Amino acid sequence: VGNRIIRKRIHVRVEHVQPSRCREEFELRKIRNDKLKAEAKARGEKISTKRQPVGPKPGFMVEGATLETVTPIPYDVVNDLKGGY
Predict the structure, then answer these.
(1) Which of 34, 50, 52 is nearest to 42 (CA)?
(2) Cα-based angle 30, 48, 38 (whole degrees, multiple of 5)
(3) Residue-level pLDDT at 83
(4) Where are the domains of the chain?
(5) Which pLDDT band holds residue 85 (cuts at 50, 70, 90)?
(6) Each residue of 55-84: pLDDT tens digit?
(7) In b/e form, how buried is each residue of 45-56, taking b as 16+ CB within 10 angstroms?
(8) In this predicted model, what pLDDT tens digit does every residue of 13-42 receive, in sequence order?
(9) Closest residue by Cα to residue 73 from 60, 56, 55, 85
(10) What is the three-state SS of the chain?
(11) CA 25 from centre of chain
(12) Among residues 64, 63, 31, 71, which one has the least CA distance to residue 49?
């Protein structure tokens, strides 16, 4: 092939082809941001239209937990060798 660029071909029936949805969220966000900007401009404010990362979840207390004391069972060599318990 060397320095030539060979275009890939895909063989798909027309029924299986569907339009890409990768820009849907961007388009909706753009429309929403334009509305927010227009409202803020009417009020004389400046707003940030940047996406913010999701913050940490709020803390909570776990209640109603009961404690159970667990003790080890003594190992019995004689019964273990016989195959019994």
Answers:
(1) 34
(2) 60
(3) 63
(4) 13-48
(5) low
(6) 999 999 888 878 889 998 888 777 777 665
(7) eeeeeeeeeeee
(8) 999 999 999 999 999 999 999 999 999 999
(9) 85
(10) CCCCCCCCCCCCCHHHCCCCCCCHHHHHHHHHHHHHHHHHHHHCCCCCCCCCCCCCCCCCCCCCCCCCCCCCCCCCHHHHHHCCC
(11) 16
(12) 31
* Contacts with 36 (C-beta within 8 Å, 6 or more apart), sequence order: 47, 49
Sequence length of the chain is 85
Token pair in block for residue 21: 């949805």
Q: Which two tokens stand for residue 25?
A: 């969220």
